[in-house]
């Protein structure tokens, strides 16, 4: 799952070099409605003149098989062969969906990730998890498939909405919590806004790559990267089904981080003082998500579809102290509901 990752001003020239090789028959660029307008102009000078644009609507609700059909139809109509390359220009929805669509077209064409959100630059574009949502469950259909390369240009972040920037920051906090206590401590003191996103991206990518290299297919330590997601995905999936109440992925993960840290305290793995530090940092960035107590049982049920489960056992990733993730900690649906009730009671 190890692909080369190029970060910084050299990323787009390096992409051009990759695309102009004779081994590439045709270049397809996948965008959503926003990245077509706000990101394509920066990329276009680096693309061959005969590239073909494929557009899907923006947003998690379009991370579906139906959007994949749009990609597959265009590739088919344009007679894309196995030497074509799909360039995924967008956030995590475009990079996940584009990677999945490329992996299935003619049993696999190469794709490159060109992430344009903080979330996709620090997390989604790296590590080879691709997929789409299905029947209300997050990433229910997907494959592990490494991109040919990842090209990260932090200048894309200049047009990103602050709410989206914060969403990506949740995955950065997650990385520190599972593997880097010093960075967690330093950054909670500095505060979340920075003028050095490049540094943050480089550190997060390196940390994620180290974990993925040990366990690309998530049979063990890669589950650390799923910290905050057993509860986070349950919240995100539940709210996605309720138009007008949707939470961004990172917002749901931030809530999941608080809930799963609380579960870690219940297991005796994390101290109350550490939980307090985590909550203070998380709520300095994120507002509390809103749900009522009566909904907690229904939200918790979604964890029964978590991909880390073995049979009916929900295996959660927890913290054995800040900076030390620990995976495969069994929890019940009731305990997850209890953690949501704890979150609900918190004053932010
Ligand atoms: N594969 C993985 O390892 C992995 C990791 C984390 C998250 N994810 C997935 O990533 C998805 C979330 O990704 P996301 O937060 O990037 O969401 P997203 O792709 O929906 O992008 C967020 C919004 O920002 C817009 N946008 C993108 N780049 C922009 C830019 N530069 N300027 C202005 N607008 C821009 C998009 O059009 C969209 O409206 C979720 O589906 C999640 O499951 C995958
Ligand atoms: O790369 C990983 O591994 C992760 O778990 C990163 C997560 O941030 C990401 O949201 C991932 O898509 C979750 O995967 P899933 O297997 O829980 O669907
Ligand atoms: Zn995530």
From TrEMBL:
It catalyses: 7-phospho-2-dehydro-3-deoxy-D-arabino-heptonate = 3-dehydroquinate + phosphate. Keywords: Amino-acid biosynthesis, Aromatic amino acid biosynthesis, Cobalt, Cytoplasm, Lyase, Metal-binding, NAD, Nucleotide-binding, Zinc. Belongs to the sugar phosphate cyclases superfamily. Dehydroquinate synthase family. It comes from the Bacteria. Residues 54-166 form the 3-dehydroquinate synthase N-terminal domain. Residues 168-309 form the 3-dehydroquinate synthase C-terminal domain. This is 3-dehydroquinate synthase. It is an enzyme of class 4 (lyase). GO terms for molecular function: 3-dehydroquinate synthase activity. Its cofactor is Co(2+); NAD(+). Its main location: cytoplasm. The gene is aroB. Gene3D superfamilies: 3.40.50.1970, Dehydroquinate synthase-like - alpha domain. Pathway: Metabolic intermediate biosynthesis; chorismate biosynthesis; chorismate from D-erythrose 4-phosphate and phosphoenolpyruvate: step 2/7. The keyword Metal-binding applies. PANTHER family: 3-DEHYDROQUINATE SYNTHASE, 3-DEHYDROQUINATE SYNTHASE, CHLOROPLASTIC. It comes from Hymenobacter armeniacus. Catalyzes the conversion of 3-deoxy-D-arabino-heptulosonate 7-phosphate (DAHP) to dehydroquinate (DHQ). Its EC number is 4.2.3.4. It is found in: Cytoplasm.
């Amino acid at each position: 799952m190890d692909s080369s990752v190029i970060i910084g001003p050299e990323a787009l020239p390096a992409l051009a070099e990759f695309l102009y090789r004779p081994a590439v028959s045709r270049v397809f660029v996948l965008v959503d409605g926003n990245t077509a307008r706000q990101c394509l102009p920066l990329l276009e000078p680096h693309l061959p003149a005969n590239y073909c644009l494929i557009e899907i609507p923006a947003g998690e609700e379009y991370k579906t098989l139906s959007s994949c059909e749009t990609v597959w139809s265009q590739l088919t109509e344009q007679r894309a062969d196995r030497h074509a390359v799909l360039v995924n220009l967008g956030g995590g929805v475009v990079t996940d969906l584009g990677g999945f669509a490329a992996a299935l077209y003619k049993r696999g064409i190469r794709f490159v990730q060109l992430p344009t959100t903080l979330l996709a630059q620090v997390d989604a574009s790296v590590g080879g998890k691709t997929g789409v949502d299905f029947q209300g469950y997050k990433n229910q259909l997907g494959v592990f498939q490494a991109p040919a390369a990842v090209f990260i240009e932090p200048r894309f972040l200049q047009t990103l909405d602050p709410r989206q920037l914060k969403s990506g920051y949740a995955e950065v906090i997650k990385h520190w919590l599972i593997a880097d206590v010093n960075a967690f401590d330093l950054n909670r003191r500095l505060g979340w806004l920075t003028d050095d996103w490049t540094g943050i991206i480089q550190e997060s990518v390196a940390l994620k790559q180290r974990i993925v290299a040990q366990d690309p297919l998530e049979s063990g330590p890669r589950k650390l990267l799923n910290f905050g997601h057993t509860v986070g995905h349950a919240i995100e999936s539940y709210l996605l089904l309720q138009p007008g109440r949707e939470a961004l992925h990172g917002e749901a993960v931030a809530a999941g981080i608080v809930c799963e840290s609380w579960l870690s305290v219940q297991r005796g793995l994390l101290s109350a003082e550490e939980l307090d530090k985590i909550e203070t940092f998380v709520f300095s960035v994120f507002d509390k998500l809103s749900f009522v107590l009566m909904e907690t049982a229904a939200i918790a049920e979604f964890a029964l579809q978590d991909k880390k489960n073995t049979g009916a056992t929900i295996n959660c990733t927890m913290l054995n102290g800040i900076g030390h993730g620990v995976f495969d900690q069994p929890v019940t649906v009731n305990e997850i509901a209890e953690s949501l009730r704890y979150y609900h009671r918190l004053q932010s």
